Amino acid sequence: TRNVMYGLTAEAPGGIISSNKVTNSAFMGLIFGNKPEGIGLGETVRDNVVSRFCLYYADCGGIYTVNGAGTAAPQGPSTISNNVVTDGVGDYQGSKSTDRDLTVGIYLDN
């Protein structure tokens, strides 16, 4: 079903997101970031394998971070390293764009 959008969501300030395997995600494979509640600053995302993501949606990434507070403020000292991200699909139905660049391995959004 399409009810589960993310393969893994991390909401732990300063947390380590490591050694996970995420496969066949409808939207983002792994998501972390600055949320309005103040969570999601200073994470380390390392040694993960993310494959076959964005199966039902576009404008997404295998590893995605967002400033959910709606400001252009910096994310914080988060680190993304030594991850393997492959096979982003991108489903463009319902999207006004067919630009393949809407689906990327690591998506740094604000």
Rg is: 13 Å
Order of helices and strands: EEEEEEEEEE
Average pLDDT confidence is 78
The low-confidence parts are none
Residue share in helix? under 10%
The total beta strand count reads: 10
Derived structural class: mainly beta
- Number of separate helices: 0
Q: Quick one: biggest sheet?
A: 4 strands, parallel
The protein's oligomeric status is: single chain
Describe the strand arrangement of the main beta sheet, using strand numbers: 1-4-7-10
Task: Tell the overall outline.
Answer: globular
Estimate the strand proportion: 35-45%
Distance between the termini: 28 Å
Overall description:
This protein is mostly beta strands. It is 0% helix and 39% strand. It has no helices and ten strands. The chain has strands at residues 8-9, 16-18, 21-23, 30-34, 44-46, 49-53, 60-67, 79-81, 84-88, 103-108. Strands 1-4-7-10 form a four-stranded parallel β-sheet, with no helix packed on it. The radius of gyration is 13 Å and the shape is globular. The N and C termini lie far apart (28 Å).
